[in-house]
Amino acid sequence: MTLSSWIAELLLISLTGAHGLHRFPENFVIAKRNDRNPVTLTCRTASSEPVTWKMDGEEVGFDDYLEKDGKNLIVQEIEEPFLGEYTCWTGEEKLSSTYLLQEAEVDEEIECRAKSYDCNFTCSWNHRGFKALRYGLGQECTKGQESCNWVSSSNRHQFVLSHALSPYAEERTMLEVTVEATDNLHFFRRTKSFYLRDIIVPDSPHIVRCQKVDQKLNVTVGPPSSWSTPHSFFSLEHEIQYVFRDDGMIQSSLSTLIPREISKLRVRSRDSLTLSEWSHPSLSAFALYMLSCVLTCLQCSLVCRIYDFFMTSPVCLFTYLWFRKGSVSI
Ligand SMILES: *[C@@H]1O[C@H](CO)[C@@H](O)[C@H](O)[C@H]1NC(C)=O
Ligand SMILES: *[C@@H]1O[C@H](CO)[C@@H](O)[C@H](O)[C@H]1NC(C)=O
Q1: Which of 23, 106, 210, 257 could form an S-S bond across to 216 if both were Cys, CB 3.0 to 4.6 Å?
Q2: What global pTM score does this model have?
């Protein structure tokens, strides 16, 4: 486990610990906005004993707004403070729980990205303030059918979905992603349809080698490890961006042969068949080198670190000056 994933895990544990783990409610009734019709909440029990109703832990009294109909409860006013969790009881025994939720508008779109044509892709939905969320793939979920295979998620804005499309066949049907969320009073829903090929964004490629070839530099670019294989079938197009040493001009090239008189270079990729979105650029060759210097300085104990600092910083400095002079070599 890397340090960053360890920290992320720790953060997640403390977050879920602090707020409690919220699951998507199993039973709920959704009322449309501005719907004047009363809603009937059912007490799911086979027993014939009389029941009492509680709302958010408090026993409900019956009045113009809340009426009892046998074991069921009729809610006349679909507004706060009548939204929330209703439970029915016989004595101390809880029989069932139902959330009365009001449909609410959301503006935030679902964002989806795939790093390759393999089975997984990720979606995120940055809608704030919900306590529980679930998501599903396919028409069953879009239509809200029983057969939908929902995946619940708590406090997560990003989730991984798997599709069953063949990466070798032409894609004819769209993927449909549905997200539902609740803050225990309101109900939010969003759907997005798209072709997998339209959400492809490869990871950053890496620079394998730079070789001097006459007056040019031949840059060998390696595809990101997450990209689909075989690479001969799933081909990527690389664009090399470089900065001229003399005047700081920035140029880019789709050819791997670039001028030698440069001070920095970096590279980005896209699917060459569908002309997907470009990946993030790789770290520039120079930045990568400085980073490895800094990491070496940080890695060991304090004593070693002080020693290291004095040993490596002249090397870093020397390399820096050497880079500034213009010899690019990795
Ligand atoms: C897809 O995601 C699942 C669950 O997150 C994971 O277990 C699996 O290894 C992933 N598969 C690939 C090919 O990345
Ligand atoms: C550049 O490098 C690649 C692989 O590293 C090689 O196949 C190619 O022939 C080289 N190009 C030139 C012009 O030397």
Answers
A1: 257
A2: 0.71
70 φ, ψ (degrees, to nearest 5): 65, -125
218 CA → ligand 2 middle, Å: 6
Q: Cα separation of 23 and 130, whole Å?
A: 11
Q: Which ligand is nearest to the CA of 256?
A: 2
The alpha carbon of 73 and the centre of ligand 1 are apart by a number of angstroms equal to 45
pLDDT digits (tens, 9 = 90+) for 214-269: 888 888 899 999 999 898 899 999 999 988 888 888 999 999 998 888 888 889 99
Q: Which CATH class is domain 3-101?
A: mainly beta
The contacts of residue 113 (CB under 8 Å, 6+ apart) are 121, 122, 123, 199, 201
Closest Cα to atom 8 of ligand 1? 120
Higher pLDDT: 183 or 318? It is: 183
Nearest atom, ligand 2, residue 257 CA: 13
CA of 14 to the centre of ligand 1 (A): 25
* Domain boundary assignment for the chain: 3-101, 111-199, 202-330
Pocket probe for ligand 2: among 220, 221, 330, the residue whose CB has the most ligand atoms within 8 Å is 220
Q: Which atom of ligand 2 is nearest to the CA of 220?
A: 5
Distance CA(182)–CA(108), nearest Å, equals 14
The CATH code belonging to domain 111-199 is 2.60.40.10
The class of domain 202-330 in CATH terms is: mainly beta
